Amino acid sequence: MNTRNASGVGEAINRVEGRLKVMGLAKYASEFPVEKLVYAQGVNSTIAKGRITAIDTSEAKKQKGVLEVITHLNAPRLKAFDKKMPSYTLTTIAPVLQNAEILHYGQFVACVIAETFEQAQYASRLVKVTYQEDKPDIHLNKNRGKAYKPDEAADFKRGSIETGLREAAVKVEETYTTPIEHQHPMELHAAIISWNNNKVKMYANQQILNEATISVSDTFMIPKENVQIIAPYIGGGFGSKLRVNKHLILGTMASKMLGRPVKITVTRQQMFTNTGMRQFDEQVMKIGAKQDGSLTALAHHTLSHTAMDTQYYEACGNVSKMLYNTPNNEITHRLIPLNLPCPDSMRAPGEATGSFALECAMDEMAWKLKMDPIDFRIKNDTQTDLGAGKPFSSRLLTECLRIGADKFGWKNR
User: Fold this and answer.
1) Cβ atoms of 260 and 290 closer than 8 Å
2) Across the strands, what pairs with 301?
3) Burial class of residue 208 (count of CB atoms within 10 Å of its CB; 0-12, 13-18, 19+)
4) In Å, how far from its chain's centre is CA 147?
5) What CATH class is the domain 141-181+277-412?
6) What is the DSSP string of 330-346?
7) Domain boundaries, the chain
8) What is the rounded distance in angstroms from the CA atom of residue 127 to the CA atom of residue 108?
9) Is 0.70 topped by the overall pTM?
10) Mean of the pLDDT values across residues 85-93?
11) Statement: 29-134+189-274 belongs to CATH 1.25.40.10
């Protein structure tokens, strides 16, 4: 056995996969050699809300190399959601092509399987879908009356925010918005999937494998032990490859129906509607402070959107539970169902967007107090996680602020 002494931090370590990556020798999900491979291509809805009234696949099926076109009319039956608006978790099932209902633009409505990638792509453009189109709900402002509390953990309260604001000498109330953002890693979402005797083997660029196997097995109602996912390398994910997206279910469905391994790749365009996104967030911040800078109240209210059939929300307010010392704290999260794809994790979900709103509001308060914003934050530092009611095992926020300020000459600005 090889042994080495390590300091734990600050030491340069060679990445074992680095050489393979820079030489182009690392195999990603869609690059494994598999015999008798066929190719799948998803077909997307061109409306955001309504129902499919007819699908004409005849022209697509006539094309050279086309083996099958899957629609909701011939797709295998998958497990359905057992309740309305289930939470979109790492193990959530991902049923697709199970009915004629359209819930968002770009939703998969069919899947073409052919002998080559080019044949599948060409034939996918020949699938003709007729819809009964309804007016979609896509605007947050027009649907505020539909906002709801997603679960008990969405709200948090300590003390009385009303009392804290009454005791404040200075108050700040501001609204901050952050837009929808798409992860778009360099590597497209892709997989090679083989269904054999009720067992699934897939090369897939998933970020978390154990939960993905649960999602796939539950969707197809087979034992978890029957699902094997291999993901040696991932060409970026940024959260979009945490959960099982529906292209994996399409590919698995195709392999089950044809009895051959299937490669499916989500196009760059399809990634805008089928691989998650950071949701739009509207955050209302209310802060109260005494004249000496001590916080008396901190409220953080977040309004976001979710899908029509599943719910996900960024816990933007969590950072306001524990970052600064305040006796009165109120956090709320509300969701509005819209005809948009379900949002998903993206690079520090909740913490990134929540910190933006909180720190902007803290800067506004420092300005009103005529107080240095660094000193204002240090004044309200704490060694206790007030959200959990427990001391931090390690917290050096004050030290970081002082060292950072000194390093770039904050006092000389």
Assistant:
1) no
2) 284, 332
3) middle
4) 20
5) alpha beta
6) EEEEEEEE-SSPPP---
7) 29-134+189-274, 141-181+277-412
8) 12
9) yes
10) 95
11) no
User: For residues 102 and 134, what is the distance between their CA atoms, to the nearest angstrom?
Assistant: 10
CA distance 136 to 131: 13
Say how far apart CA 130 and CA 54 lie, in whole Å. Answer: 5
Residue 241 has pLDDT above 70, yes or no: yes
- Bin 407: left if φ > 0, else alpha if -120 < ψ < 50, else beta: alpha
Interval 125-152 mean pLDDT: 97
Strands (E), 23-102: 38-44, 50-56, 66-70, 101-102
Show the tokens assigned to 321.
């539970």
Please state the length of the chain.
Answer: 413
What does DSSP assign to residue 81? P
| Two structure tokens written together for 243 | 């959960």
Q: What is the pLDDT of residues 315-333, one digit of tens each?
A: 999 999 999 999 999 999 9
The per-residue DSSP string of 83-143 comes to: SSS-B--TT-----S-SSEE-STT-EEEEEEESSHHHHHHHHTT-EEEEEE------SGGG
